[in-house]
Every structure is written in C-alpha cells, then in structure tokens.
Amino acid sequence: MTLRAFMHRIAVLTVFAVLLSGCDKGNPLTVVKAVAAGAPSLAPFFDEDSGLGKDAGAVRSQPVRGSLQQGDTPGLYGGSKQPTICDVAALERFLTDPGNHDKAQAWADVLNIRTDRIPEYLDRLTPVLLRHDTLVQNHDYKKGKAVPYNSLLQAGIAILVDEQGLPAVKCSCGNPLRPFKGDTGRISVRFEDGNKKWAGYERKSVVAVRPAPRKLARIALLDVHEPARGIDRPVGTTGERDATFDAGKPRVVPELAGTTFAQAGRELIDAGLAAGYAGQEPPPDGARVTATDPPAGSELAFGQYVMLTVAEGDGSASGGETGPATVPTTAPPPPHPSGPGTPPSGTPPSSGSRSGGTSSAPPSSSRGTPGPSSTPPPSSTAPGSASPGSASPAPKKSSSPPSTSAPASSSAPPPPSPPPPPPATSSAPMTGEPPTVTSRPATSEPASSEPASGGPSTTVAT
Predict the structure, then answer these.
(1) Alpha-carbon gap, residue 315 to 324, rounded angstroms
(2) Among the ranges 250-264, 313-327, 362-376, 448-462, which has the highest mean pLDDT value?
(3) Residue 130, beta-bridge partner list
(4) How crowded is the C-beta side of 122, counted as CA atoms within 13 Å?
(5) What is the pTM of this model?
(6) Which of 41, 61, 254, 301 is the most buried (most CB within 10 A)?
(7) Using CA atoms in the order 274, 277, 278, 279, what is the torsion angle rounded to 10 degrees?
(8) How many helices (H) and strands (E) does the chain have?
(9) Burial level of 424, CB count in 10 A (0-12/13-18/19+)?
(10) Gyration radius of the chain's alpha carbons
C-alpha cells in the first residue's frame, strides 16, 4: 500500500469516528464505579470494621425485563435466614453522637432531612439484600463533605430501603444512597480499587430503581439462596418480625389486554408478578396493552416477569418496543438546613424511633402499625387476607421522608355519576398523606412446588 493510499484510509477512518462521536454528543456515556459485595469503600461514612452491616456472598444477579423498575416490583429485593444484616441502632448512635455532627450534617443533607430527624428517618428504613446488580448514586465522605458518584452495587450487597422501596443506605459503610439519574442504557462500568469484575456480571441484568407510587407497609422478599422461600417483612423492622411464604406457589397471569400499562403493572403487582417491557424505558402509563407473554391464565412463581406489548400510536411500538416513558422523577429536592426548624412539607412529626439497642430488639409499637385510610391503594393480597379490591391498609406511622413521586391513582373503575348537586354547594379540598401500601405476596392461586426464578419483588397489597 502506498503512503498516499494509507493516509487516505486514515483520513476516512478519522472522519467516520468523528461522525459516530457526533451522534452521541448529546447523550454521552455515564461513568459508573463498580462496587463488589464485601469490598470496602475507600472513603466511607462509617468504619466498615465495626460490623455495621454484612453483605451476602455468592449471589448471582437475576435477569430483568426492563432496566428501570419500581421499588414495589415483586422479586426486586431479597433476604436470607439470617435476617440481621444491618445494625441500624449502631448507625443511629454514631450519627447522633455530638462528636460526629459534621459527618451527620453531610449525611442528612444527601437524604434531604434535618440532623434532628435522623432517628425518625432510620426508624422507617428496612434492611434487604440486592437480587440484581443495581445502579445508584453513592456518596463517599471526603474533607467534611459528601461526594456523590454513580456506582453499580453487586447483587448480594446489604442496603436499607425507604418506604417507597428506594435504596437509602449501604449497610456495611453507612454511605447514603440516592436514585441513579443517568440513562441506564448508556453507562461505562469501571472495575477498579479492588472491585474486580464479579462472576455472573451481565450488562443486560443491570437495574435502576424508581420510587413506588405509594408507601409500603410490608415488603415481600425472596431468599437469595432459596428462591422458593418468600420472606414477608414489615417496613421499619430488621427481621425479628419476619414471616415466610411459599414463593413457588403459582400466580395466575391476569387478563390485561385493553388495560393501560400503568393499570397492568398494578394488577401484576397484586398478583405477585413483575411487569416486563422491551427497551430501556417503560412505555407511557396510558399506553394500551394488547398482549402478554405468557398469556392470561398462565401460572408463574412469585416475582417472575410478564412481558407487556402495547399498541402502536401510544408512544411505543408493538411487540414491546417502547418509546420515551413518563416516569416519576427520582431526583431529590434541595436539602433542608440542619437543626431546629419547620419540617419538610407533608412530613408530620414522628411518634417514635428505632431503639438505640441492638438491631434485633423489637421495634416500637408505632412502627408498622396501620391506621385508617380513605383511599384503597393498588396492592397484592397478603396470606390469609382479602383479595385485591378489599379495604386498603392504612397510612404508616407518623413521620415520613420527603416523597419522590406522586401517589398512583386507583385502578378501580369510576363510580356512576351522582345527580347534579344543588347550586351554591361547595366542598372543602381533601388533604392528607398518601395511604400506605402493603408489600405482600398474593395468595389466591393453587399451591405448587415450582421454585421461583429471578424477577424483581416487592408486592403492594390491599
């Protein structure tokens, strides 16, 4: 090859590379740091040698059908027969120690709470194990400040989740977590600083979590080592009040053709199943479902996926090829200042907090105790309870962290129109917090010994 021909080829390749890079100029790759289970953080908020939390080993990430999943998705989180995986009381003692005020201030700012509300906030968190390699915004503590960075947490890592199923704290180091803000389809994962690529890592198995539309009262987990064993855990407890259920018991796929994507998702959650879709973003909530795979009437184990196909012209293509979705924002609002002051809007004062003793101590009587509710939330049926559509569990206890998404509307059909009201009649606006939703497994189907497989889990129950 002559020098002239060689230079011509180089020029062509250079132009081609420039053109390719120009296509992605408006949507660059997001650099994500891999965090392996059991690997220590370089700049943790909390000393990892103190035994604050313990990750589970040998947990292979489960496949997903749609990389963005709600915090109440059945099968999303797991547990084990050794429930005490995070010493929440020890974390509280550390963050409320006056000698650690600066670190507590940085920690609270990340989670958009005041330092004096840390005990109440911790009292509402629930320890779980990741069943998927999960994208989050992590935070190190450097030079007196919380330094955010995007990270991919390996399946098996112990975390605390909030009442909407969002990752809130990494147990082993106390690092605060917030939702991943990037494009899940355009990430560059870096395995460094002792975090070697783990066995079973697959790019297509990565998931990010968006908030459930309503607060959960209970979370249905799958045992990370025995997936046919389900664990029903009240929100705000650390395992001492767990109950088990048969996750292998068949769940029947409901008839979903003609419903909206949002309604289909709620009905699947009620049945203990997960909504799947093709592409990186879910279809618009109003997109009409035309088919499911497997079809209605099929039987699946708890937490398995049902792929939804929506009609063309509804913001996505048929066959599950979806377009941009309208999803709740996961970005936290601006932080509130530390110290006394007015609590965030919509957050009433708490009536109690987690005990300062060991994490196995029974929770306070106020935690996980439902009260009256006026709006039935979409949810799944707990063992021995009424079927979906019955009276909903009531709002959870007092104080709650700022919600990151609006309440979901009821999937029930509207009631008949009442006769026109007499003139000059007015009504006061309704107020109040969104009702609590119970994350429980559905139990209306015949029993079976079929083991569960990996799909996300956290069912919402009425």
Answers:
(1) 7
(2) 250-264
(3) 77
(4) 29
(5) 0.67
(6) 301
(7) -90
(8) 5, 21
(9) exposed
(10) 23
CA distances for 239 relative to 73, 287, 401, angstroms: 20, 39, 22
Burial of 426 (0-12, 13-18, 19+ CB in 10 A): exposed
Residue showing tokens 């313990």: 54
Per-residue tokens: 429:
């606006």
Tokens for 203, please give them.
């790019």
Phi first, then psi, for residue 119 (nearest 5°) are -60, -40
What does the pLDDT look like over 283-320, one tens digit per residue? 999 999 999 999 999 999 999 999 999 997 655 433 44
CA 133 to chain centre: 13
Q: Which helix (H) or strand (E) holds 222?
A: strand 218-223
- Cβ contacts of residue 193 below 8 Å, gap of 6+? 33, 42
- What pLDDT is stored for residue 291 in this prediction? 96
Look at 146 and 364; give whichever has higher pLDDT.
Answer: 146
Distance CA 162, CA 249 (A): 28
The answer for residues whose C-beta is within 8 angstroms of residue 57's C-beta and 6 or more apart is 37, 38, 156
Angle ∠(309,227,204) on CA atoms, nearest 5: 45
Average pLDDT over residues 39-50: 88
66 closest CA partner among 439, 326, 456 = 456
Note the pLDDT of residue 31.
96
Strand partners, 68: 208
Strand partners, 158: 129
The identity of residue 195, as a single letter, is N
Structure-block tokens of residue 50: 């103190």
Mention every residue, 6+ apart, whose C-beta is less than 8 A from residue 186: 24, 27, 28, 29, 30
Burial of residue 244, with CB atoms counted within 10 A of its CB: 0-12 exposed, 13-18 middle, 19 or more buried: middle
Q: Which residue type, as a one-letter code, is found at position 5? A: A
Weakest-pLDDT range from 20-34, 137-151, 343-357: 343-357
User: Which tokens belong to 15?
Assistant: 């132009």
Angle at 349 between CA 345 and CA 354, to 5 degrees: 125
36 alpha carbon, distance to own chain's centre: 19
**CB neighbours (10 Å) of residue 126?**
29
Spatial CB neighbours of 414, under 8 Å, sequence gap ≥ 6: none
| Two tokens, residue 307 | 């792929």
The verdict on whether omega for the bond into residue 370 sits within 30 degrees of 0, i.e. cis, is no
